[in-house]
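During the no-cost extension, the postdoctoral fellow (Dr. R.K.) reprocessed legacy sequence entries with the updated structure-token encoder. One reprocessed record is reproduced below for audit purposes.
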Amino acid sequence: RRHVMSNVVVAFIDGDRATAKSYMTVLHTEPEGAATPVLAGDYDDVVVRGAAGEWLFAKRTVRRAGPPAA
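Re-encoded structure tokens follow.
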């Protein structure tokens, strides 16, 4: 399976917090390389800066849009 994220939009709340919104598509990949969409939806995330400066997920909301149209 492949998990593809697109149209990522990040909005900083302050220097240590941000929100991120993105679309996701999950593809089932066959050994010969063919890919079939099996799930689509979007993410709403809240991220915070950790003690070492890394960005960490504080909250993630996943909304399933249903199978993509064939």
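The beta strands are 2-14, 17-29, 35-49, 55-66. The chain has a mean pLDDT of 92. The remaining legacy entries will be reprocessed before the final report is submitted.
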